[in-house]
Amino acid sequence: MPPGEPEPSVAEPHALLRGYLDYYRDTLLRKIEGLPEEELRGSRVPSGWSPLELVRHLTYVERRWLCWGFEAERVPDPWGDRGGDDRWRVPDGMSAAEVIDAFRTQCDRSREIVRDARLDARARLGGRFPTEDEAPSLAWILFHLLQEYARHVGQLDVARELADGTTGE
């Protein structure tokens, strides 16, 4: 079992979803650990995203789905991870440490939102979801977040291997 995965005995769905989200959050941070600034900000893939842009994107993914979506909080610029060309971006002058700190802070907020919420609870109306028909359950949102992380951490695996040969966990 890879480090950080929930124990195999965990069967309660809420704990399992929270555990795997934390596993992917931690894996994302491990994948960028030790990369020099030029590798964090540069791209190794044809589509042009950088590891730091990916971290910022996932910060906003969490915010869009849990704060703006599930909680219907007012979120200034929920699509702020994208530039005018709809590509992920990190604002000029924002340090790598600031991007990573914002990610950690958002993950803490996401954990707080999810901690005591029921999986069958529907997203509140008025934020991302204007009507009840559009409002997904928390279970759906968490599964959506898991697939986002699985896909993006897999992409980061490739970028890291191209950067310095590091593979695996």
Provide an overview of this structure.
- This protein is mainly α.
- The protein is built from five helices and no strands.
- It has a single domain, classed as Four Helix Bundle (Hemerythrin (Met), subunit A), CATH 1.20.120.450.
- It holds the Pfam family MST.
- This is Mini-circle protein.
- InterPro entries: DinB/YfiT-like (IPR034660), MST-like (IPR007061).
What's the topology here?
Elements: H1 13-32, H2 37-41, H3 51-70, H4 96-115, H5 138-164
Element order: H for helix, E for strand: HHHHH
Helix content: 40-55%
- Could you tell me how far the N terminus lies from the C terminus, measured between alpha carbons in angstroms? 11 Å
Large-scale geometry: globular
Please give the largest β-sheet: none
Instruction: Output the CATH topology.
Output: Four Helix Bundle (Hemerythrin (Met), subunit A)
SSE class: mainly alpha
Give the integer mean of the pLDDT values.
95
Give the count of helical stretches: 5
Q: Determine and state the CATH class.
A: Mainly Alpha
Low-confidence stretches: none
Sheet-strand content, in percent, reads: under 5%
So, CATH architecture?
A: Up-down Bundle
Radius of gyration, in Å, reads 16 Å
Please, what is the CATH homologous superfamily?
dinb family like domain
Instruction: Give a count of the beta strands, DSSP E runs of length 2 or more.
Output: 0
Total domain units: 1
Short description:
It is built from 5 helices and no strands.
